[in-house]
Specification:
The chain has 3 helices and 8 strands. It has 143 residues and is of the alpha/beta class. The chain folds into 2 domains: 49 residues, no CATH class; 83 residues, no CATH class. The longest helix has 31 residues. The radius of gyration is 18 Å and the shape is globular. 19% of the residues are buried.
């Protein structure tokens, strides 16, 4: 049975509705939704990468620990300071990779971006995804 339905895009916890598209069956929609959930983190990392390049014209770098157990999505440089940046697609603020990076390099600031609001907790500064362009303001802060 072919039915008409709306096509939805899922990004950073929100759905955006587009034009109608035919769906062969309910299973097709379920497969599509599963794929979106599976790649949600990659979509959000891609968004942040685009923001970093568009606003700061920087080459993109990442960090991985020697054992490969910890990985940070981006290492940015602002005013001769390295800024480790962890990107999260949801609202879970936990980041073992930031802690691992901190133990090894002791940077002045650790940055995380996700769906949560602005928050500073010691060295860790949480930046909402929509505010990635403000990253240098928080990196240059001391204390």
């Amino acid at each position: 049975m072919v039915s008409e339905s709306f096509r939805f895009t899922h990004f950073a916890g929100s759905f955006v509705c587009h034009e109608k598209m035919p769906l062969e069956d309910e299973d097709e929609l379920k497969r599509w939704y599963k794929a979106l959930n599976e790649y949600e983190g990659a979509f959000v990392e891609n968004y942040v990468a685009q923001q970093l390049v568009a606003h700061f014209q920087q080459d993109l770098y990442y960090w991985r620990s020697k054992g490969g157990k910890a990985e940070l999505d981006f290492l940015c440089e602002f005013e001769d300071r390295i800024c480790p940046l962890e990107v999260k697609a949801g609202i879970n603020p936990k980041s073992k990779s930031l802690k691992s990076y901190n133990l090894q390099f002791q940077p002045a600031r650790l940055m995380r971006t996700n769906l949560l609001n602005f928050k500073k907790d010691g060295k860790i500064c949480n930046l909402p995804l929509y505010a990635v362009s403000l990253l240098p303001l928080f990196v240059s802060e001391t204390g």
